[in-house]
TrEMBL record:
GO terms for molecular function: triacylglycerol lipase activity. It comes from Kribbella jiaozuonensis. This is Alpha/beta hydrolase. InterPro entries: AB_hydrolase_fold, Lipase_secreted. PANTHER family: LIPASE 5 (PTHR34853:SF1), PTHR34853. One of its GO terms (biological process) is lipid catabolic process.
Length: 198
């Protein structure tokens, strides 16, 4: 979900390009549960949280039917997981603990952006037609990072989705000219612009 590329140049400073990032895990976790067809993301978030914190138990967060399919998240490609979870959303997908489990909700909050300044500079790109990570979520993260002092260049793209499919263009493909130009400027030692006005 989303892309991240980061690197250090000879000066030791970090740079990063983020496209449609799952930067606010709490909001995105709730969004994918409520969106038909995105059940695989909810299962992967629960499983990933468990790998990060063993106190988080996916079998408590997911419905029995959803948990019975969890194996596909470890061995299948994204399309296989989407197929396995295509018919599950809302209460057929998760239990009430998905919204209330303290360890899980803390994990989501702590692993979200907008809580501390990011090492920069950062290029943050978001498709306005993204149905996985809504543009409003990324707008909030961009505003929070600007308030925190992150050197951020933020740009949205009308019509771009989260991923590229035969019938739609995703953010990585649609924004590639900007990604390459921004990255080349960093390697050339040119200062990164900022869209923050704080």
């Amino acid at each position: 979900m989303g892309s991240l590329a980061g690197w250090r140049c000879g000066d030791g400073r970090r740079r990063a390009v983020l496209t449609s990032p799952v930067a606010n895990l709490s909001e995105v976790a709730d969004h994918v549960v409520a969106t038909p067809g995105y059940g695989a993301f909810a299962a992967m978030i629960a499983q990933g949280a468990h790998f990060g914190d063993a106190r988080i138990q996916p079998e408590r967060l997911l419905s029995p039917e959803a948990y019975s399919r969890i194996g596909i998240t470890a061995i299948g490609c994204l399309n296989a997981a989407f197929t396995a979870y295509a018919d599950l959303s809302g209460p057929q997908l998760v239990t009430p603990a998905y919204s209330t489990d303290p360890a899980f909700r803390t994990y989501l909050r702590v692993n979200s952006a907008g809580n501390q300044r990011l090492g920069g500079p950062v290029l943050l790109l978001q498709g306005e037609a993204d149905t996985v990570v809504p543009v409003g979520v990324t707008n909030q993260i961009a505003a929070a990072e600007c308030r925190l002092g992150t050197r951020l260049t933020y740009k949205t793209y009308p019509g771009l989705e989260h991923d590229t499919y035969p019938w739609v263009q995703g953010i990585d493909d649609g924004a590639m000219p900007d990604i390459l130009a921004w990255t080349a400027d960093r390697f050339a030692g040119r200062a990164a612009p900022t869209s923050c006005t704080r």
